[in-house]
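Reminder to self: keep the SMILES exactly as supplied, no canonicalising. Ligand is zinc ion.
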Amino acid sequence: MKTAFLKCGNFYRGNLHCHTARSDGRLQPEDLAAAYRERGYDFLCFTDHNIYTDLSGNSTADFLILPGMEINPPPQPGNDSEFHFLALPGTRRDREAATLPPYVHGQELRLQARHDADYLQSLLDDAHARGSLLALSHPYWSRVEYDQVLALRHLFAIDAYNFCSAVIENAGESFSCWDAVLRRGGRLWGLAVDDTHNFYPLNAPGNDAFGGYTMVKAASLSQDDVMEAIALGSFYSSAGGPEIKDFYIRDGRACLLCSPAERIYFSSQARQYRWLIAEQSGNSLTGFECDLRGDELYIRAECYDERGRRSFTNPIWLSAEDGDGASDATGS
Ligand SMILES: [Zn+2]
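Structure tokens returned for the bound complex:
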């Protein structure tokens, strides 16, 4: 049996990408945190541009504040392609393996206007050596191609959905880039994030909060447990779609359990893989199970509600050398 989620724990809702008045966001960190908390979120990571924010001391028992930063060199004149990386807190293991001092609150990066592979890799190497977990932001918005992603080391995840890019520039969906990476064996988890800037008020059509989030199944709401679960891929991502309850492979069959959905899709490297669509309009599907073909490199699942809002899992890897997925890593 291979499972997408840790066996034990609870699901926690969070946004891993937001900006405040410390860079180009409009709200103060405490006001943004309060807005997410009121909306029922369990955690929020502050990721202002090139300035590290650690307000984790303001975490409470029911709301976790994660330290972080978005690392992005200034645009390079004449080059539309630019790279932004989320530096999230690493796991305890990442911190113990660090060979450079960790970032501290208020630390600023002075970066060159370069987006060539050597320079980008040097930034990733430095952040990795400080114990960070690194994700690529919004490749579609950034005009970044899958082969450029595959060439970079130390990434653990990629934005598949970025709500700010979707609302503000109609460029939020990077599923095709993520899938192209997966098909070629690149092992990146897929994120949905807000990338909140609050360019528009929270109740306006241009609001960019609360539209892309991760649901992390973790042992507790501590930073170490949440980051351990995220690093393992024990989460699903959502743009307001159905709740995903479980996703696993057992006895040669893939199985997704979810709250009522209208369409469920499994995808792998193969074309026209597997799907189930409700016979009538309205949410009527609460799961989908099917046989594997036997040649899958991986399987991931997506489901949509009747309004077209989607949720998606991470891939479960199926090659012989792979273990049992997230459940394997805990020994539980
Ligand atoms: Zn951002």
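Points to follow up:
Residues 257 and 325 are 17 Å apart (CA to CA).
Residues 328-332 have pLDDT under 50 and may be disordered.
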